[in-house]
Amino acid sequence: MPRSPFLVYAVATIALGACATGQPASPPPAPVGTDLYQVGPVRVLLRPQPEVEFMCRLQTQQRVTSAGQIFGCYVPREQAIISTPDPYVLLHEFKHYFEGPFHD
Asked: What is the pLDDT of residues 9-52, one digit of tens each?
């Protein structure tokens, strides 16, 4: 049975149009302050490296070590990430968030 070219065109238009009009799975991070973002249940604070190191040492009560600089940390009790604006550091800190209770 021959198919109508109009029917094929209509089905293709509906199928392809649905992809272009779909909504994103989640909205982009909502800015709360100048450097504070809310990403789902997690608050993300982006600051320069010296401030990040100072805040992370306060939050995690780490002693000074010669291991190097701190570029970010995840604070489980507050569900907050303190990080430099480096995407690789942010991904690493989100990894700690997704580890869940195993991280604590």
From this structure: 554 554 445 444 455 555 555 566 678 999 999 999 999 999 99
CB 104 within 8 A of CB 97: no
Is the overall model pTM greater than 0.70, yes or no?
no
Q: Which helix (H) or strand (E) holds 94?
A: helix 87-99
Residue 22 lies in a domain: no
Total domains in the chain come to 1
Q: Dihedrals φ, ψ of 6, to 5°?
A: -65, -40
- Distance, C-alpha 24 to centroid of its chain: 15
Contact 67, 53 (CB under 8 A): no
AA identity, residue 100: G
| Domain membership of residue 72 as a residue range | 29-102
